[in-house]
Design goal:
alpha+beta, Immunoglobulin-like, four-stranded antiparallel β-sheet, 11 strands
Length: 202
């Protein structure tokens, strides 16, 4: 690896021909592009790459609907995409299959999540109730109850239930009668703050 303190490469980064330029602070590093063949990987490494590719494809489906509006707001140096991937890769087994739907998460943030959920499914409708923290700020009662839905193995949403935190209970329609689970979370009315989600099997 070559180290450069200034000059042309200081303003560049990425692959250029058969070299890669990486900037770290005010220093640029130049290194040759590694050459890999299928024989370069062990069976275990190939399995890890396959799993990562499947999880990446899963994450891509939620870039615009979930990652950009929710996960990009989370603090920290890594991107919202990397936070979402790092959280949800734990739900996938080594073959790339979702082993536990409850390990998936679609919302996160500083708002208080719904507590002590009670739910009753009525064909295409859900009757739901929850409790609020007694010390909750009054402005928070306007938070909207949002959800993702598991329908025939697919995850759809986000959906707006039409309920607000201050209502403490209510009913809302499911996207499909075959909905088997929900991921419930609160969103502020300006959609600039969110709560962690809660998985609810129906």
């Amino acid at each position: 690896m070559t180290k450069l303190n200034a000059g042309l490469f200081g303003a560049l980064s990425g692959k250029i021909g058969n070299v890669v330029v990486v900037n770290r602070g005010k220093t640029a590093y130049v290194r040759s592009v590694p050459k890999y063949t299928e024989e370069s990987w062990t069976d275990s490494q190939r399995q890890v790459r396959k799993r990562f590719a499947i999880v990446s494809k899963f994450c891509q489906e939620y870039k615009k609907s979930i990652i950009f509006p929710i996960w990009n707001l989370l603090p920290g140096p890594s991107s919202g995409y990397n936070k979402f991937l790092g959280t949800n890769i734990k739900a996938f087994d080594k073959e790339g299959n979702i082993m536990d739907m409850s390990l998936l998460h679609f919302s996160n943030g500083s708002l208080t999540p719904p507590y002590q959920l009670s739910v009753e499914k009525r064909e295409c409708e859900i009757a739901i109730g929850w409790t609020n923290d007694p010390g909750l700020s009054r402005i928070r009662i306007k938070d909207k109850l949002m959800f993702m839905a598991v329908v025939d193995g697919r995850i759809t949403g986000p959906h707006n239930s039409g309920l607000t935190r201050g209502m403490l209970q209510g009913t809302f329609s499911l996207p499909e009668p075959s909905t088997t689970a929900l991921y419930l979370y609160f969103a502020s009315s300006d959609k600039q703050s969110f709560s962690p989600d809660r998985f609810l099997e129906l």
